[in-house]
Amino acid sequence: MQDFAKALALCAAAAMLGGCAGAGAVSHPGIGAAGGLSAHKAQPAVTLPQHVIVIVQENRSFDNLFQGFPGADTQSFGYNTLGDQVPLTELPLGTQYDPNHSHGSFVTEFRAGGMNGFNHEQCTGCPPDTAYTYVDPSDIVPYTQLATQYAIADHVLQPNEGPSFPAHIYLIAGQSGSPSSHWYVSENTLPSHKPPSNCLAPSNHTVEQIDMTTAYPGVEGNAIFPCIDPPTILDELDHAGIGWRYYTSSKGSIWTSPFAVSHLYNSPTDRARVVSPETTILSDIQAGTLQPVSYVIPRVQNSDHAGPTKPTGGPTWVASIVNAVGASPYWQNTAIIVTWDDWGGWYDHVTPTHPTNPFGGNPDPYEYGFRVPLLAVGSMAKAGYVDHTQRSAAAILHFIEDVFGLPSLGELDAQTDDLFPMFAFGQKPRAFKPIATGKVTIESLKRLPPDQTPIDDD
Predict the structure, then answer these.
(1) Is 176 helix (H, G, I), strand (E, B) or coil?
(2) 7, 14, 65, 150: least CB-packed within 10 angstroms?
(3) Residue predicted with more confidence, 308 or 188
(4) Residue 435 φ/ψ region, left for φ over 0, alpha for ψ in the -120 to 50 degree band, beta for the rest
């Protein structure tokens, strides 16, 4: 594709600041015995990371963000409900258009597996076919550098079929329900998902749920206060005495999932592990106080979330965290995983499948969603590697469990692999090459004031 060739040319022009490796190696898909997502259990490795950093960005499908990436499975067109082929057109990363990405929006776009309902996407003030677009590659050069220098996975499904509030809960719990309940949180909070929107929310705030015993597309309702109580990977780390921190720009945000979990929110010890502002991660890396597991949630301007605020800082924000690790002793023993919480309403051509319903009976009404990108970065990540393994983003939980010897949560983490195919554990750690970030520096990010900018949409 011409546009991605342009981005790679820009990447080459930045070689003096870090360079870009070629993207050539491709893995083989890992399909489970029943034809579902791979649930590969890694063999013991010689060397495993001592630190894992999970960076969660916002609202991009794979076709939308990495369209035309060399060696990856992308498609430059889709189909609409009339059977017409619709070419994907280019939009800037900072576009004001923000397609809806509620569960209902997923159902509309998915169209019972037809993958042709994107022309009926709700998008206030948007031109027709806004969902059939991709990001200008020249706007994401740092992401291109990371993907070509390290490993990118192109068949990672969003665990849930809905927006950010439940999506972020899935990334720490592999589900979005409370024990002994067949109702899972499925939407964002009401009457507004502006902070505070979790356990910190006013008492009149509610969130819709979905009945997991009903057949797809499920029955939504049974609204509750947005504070649930699932077991999480953070509990497993606590029980094993392994430190963690969750860096966020706003503790009351729908993106701050530990404060959507009652027992974490009510624990003084765990509350203290939720750190704001999110730029504290940079100071902790430099000070040598990085915990074994870190989750990093951006401010809106650095989130990749489309909308009226037109955020564009995501690529340099992510690259700056990588550069901070690369300039520190942590580089030798740290794995950095970058993913996007949901698909954002944007087109993707790969048809998602349903996992095993945890309540049996009907097909799962809420899992899995469309593809989201995932990058594996660090001295142990494979170089220039495109991984086609079929998995969900709950593989991040499986990865943390296998790296630190933790038990499985037994949720979607148990139905997918552990991301180990994206790494070359036991081999000599690779030398660090900085990623170009232009005028954005680690020090300039550390000087940013705390940010409480409300999320404009889902």
Answers:
(1) coil
(2) 14
(3) 188
(4) beta
CA distance 341 to 319: 18
Residues of the chain with pLDDT > 70, as a percent, come to 89
| Distances, alpha carbon 118 to alpha carbons 7, 50, 105, in Å | 27, 42, 9
Query: What Rg value do the Cα atoms of the chain yield, rounded?
Result: 20
The span from the CA of 390 to the CA of 155, in Å, is: 5
Residues 268-300: tens digit of each pLDDT: 999 999 999 999 999 999 999 999 999 999 999
Q: What digits encode the pLDDT tens for the residues 103-125?
A: 999 999 999 999 999 999 888 88
Per domain, the residue ranges of the chain are 2-173+230-446
Q: Who's near 101: CB < 8 A, 6+ residues apart? A: 59, 162, 163, 342, 343, 344, 345, 458
Instruction: Say if residues 297 and 248 touch (Cβ distance below 8 Å).
Output: yes
Nearest Cα neighbor of 436 from 49, 114, 30, 12 is: 12
Place of tokens 């296998």: 402
Give bridge partners of residue 336 from the DSSP assignment: 53, 377
Both tokens of residue 348?
């993707």
The closest of 274, 333, 298, 316 to 437, measured between CA atoms, is 316
CA 38 to chain centre: 19
d(CA 258, CA 237): 13
Residue pLDDT, tens place only, 125-183 = 899 999 999 999 999 999 999 999 999 999 999 999 999 999 999 999 999 999 989 99
Q: Architecture of domain 2-173+230-446 in CATH?
A: 3-Layer(aba) Sandwich (3.40)
Interior/surface letters 327-341, b for 16+ CB within 10 angstroms, e for the rest: ebebbbbbbbbbbbb
Start-to-end CA distance of the chain, whole Å, equals 31
CA distance 331 to 380: 9
